[in-house]
Design goal:
Strand content: 15-25%
Order of helices and strands: EEEEHHHEHHHHHEHHEEEE
Number of strands: 10
CATH topology of the largest domain: Beta-lactamase
Radius of gyration: 19 Å
Length: 275
């Protein structure tokens, strides 16, 4: 529906249920000028969702007894870029190979599980990446005509003319050249920046989150040998999913957030707990 209503140019959607891959849907285009189709090997930049690297990496370090979790939870919210830099410094210090956070995540978690994930995209892989476009007035109008209020509201709350968007506009105004503004500068995208430069697709991201499932025997992957995989212990999963009672104010989003111990943003629904 999002593609048909012109809200999205292309996208992918994937679902794992009890360890089994049950849904894998793709549609649309990766480039609106040349109408290149979205295919199963297409990957996209996850932007702030890239921060999932931090809790998964720290959970692995915690399980390997490289760090401990004896700290006061939920007392401070960091900006995503500063959090990524701080996390990277910690990983470099405690990892016996002195790897960066990006390299640690890919070598210890993503690649052993056979996940198609890259933090920083090399030029040789750039052809696989879906282009990034800013929403235009036509997309918002189309959403309204289809009675989709969520899409125009999302664009409204980030509109440049609103008072609280001043900081956001300062950042965008720095990007004067076309490629950088539209996030298609290969020099920028090649940087292994954990806060925004994770490249993957819905199928591999959903596969990553199966690590939080309860049953270890449901984490098998036909393309990866069992000896190459790892699972989180139950105590580690419980720690990652434990909801912190206190809310923390996020100065970037301008609202209070409910977080898990590992830093996942948490919201409630009538039936389940979403993270």
């Amino acid at each position: 529906n999002q593609i048909q209503q012109n809200n999205e140019l292309g996208s992918s959607f994937s679902v794992y249920y009890r360890g089994e891959h049950v849904v894998d849907a793709i549609g649309g285009y990766v480039d609106k000028r040349f109408r290149l189709p979205w295919v199963t090997s297409t990957i996209s930049q996850l932007f702030t969702v890239s921060m999932v690297v931090v809790p998964f990496s720290f959970a692995k370090l915690y399980q390997d007894l490289r760090i401990n979790n004896n700290y006061c939870k939920g007392t401070q919210v960091f900006h995503l870029h500063s959090l990524a830099l701080l996390s990277d410094a910690i990983v470099r210090k405690v990892d016996h190979k002195k790897r960066t956070l990006a390299r640690y995540f890919m070598e210890e978690i993503a690649w052993p599980l056979g996940l198609d994930m890259l933090i920083g995209i090399p030029r040789t892989q750039l052809y696989r990446v879906a282009r990034t476009y800013h929403a235009d007035a036509l997309s918002v109008l189309s959403a309204i005509l289809h009675l989709d209020v969520a899409y125009p509201w999302t664009n409204l709350v980030t509109a440049g003319w609103l008072p609280y968007s001043k900081e956001r506009n300062k950042v965008l105004n720095v990007f004067n050249d076309y490629e950088l503004y539209y996030n298609w500068n290969p020099d920028l995208l090649e940087i292994p920046l954990v806060s925004s430069h994770l490249f993957t697709n819905a199928r591999n991201l959903a596969r990553l989150f199966t690590l939080l499932e309860n049953s270890a025997d449901k984490l098998t992957n036909a393309t990866v040998s069992d000896t190459a995989q790892f699972v989180f212990k139950k105590s580690i999963r419980n720690w990652m999913l434990q909801v912190v009672n206190t809310s923390s104010y996020d100065p970037v989003l301008h609202r209070y957030l409910k977080l898990s111990s590992a830093g996942f943003m948490v919201t409630n629904s009538p039936k389940v707990l979403f993270i």
